[in-house]
Amino acid sequence: MERKAYEVVVEDGKFFYKHSGEILQTSDMEDSESKWIFVLSTSKVLYVGKKKKGTFQHSSFLAGGATVAAGRLVVENGVLKAVWPHSGHYQPTAENFMDFLSFLGENNVDIT
């Protein structure tokens, strides 16, 4: 897997795919049941993609390597709407989630 395709940057509080410049949109009218997942690497690089049970999950981004945080999120038109610290592989702790919330705050993401 080419992880660069999943790399996301935050500019002015909005989420964009770094290499395509495309704004992140996780909600899709045709596929409303899809789950979008993220990991934040130890070097604070954010990766986001659609979960595909059995073939693409949290461990896929970094080949099972260490993370600061992992979970699920909902982003509409680049704006964060919801986030959960849920990953069967990484089993994030409350501290991991707080680290992710700090990362969001450092990048001017509205977490109210």
UniProtKB/TrEMBL annotation:
InterPro entries: IQM. Keywords: Cytoplasm, Nucleus. It is found in: Cytoplasm; Nucleus. Coiled coil: none annotated. Its main location: cytoplasm. This is IQ domain-containing protein IQM2-like. It comes from the Eukaryota. It comes from Camelina sativa.
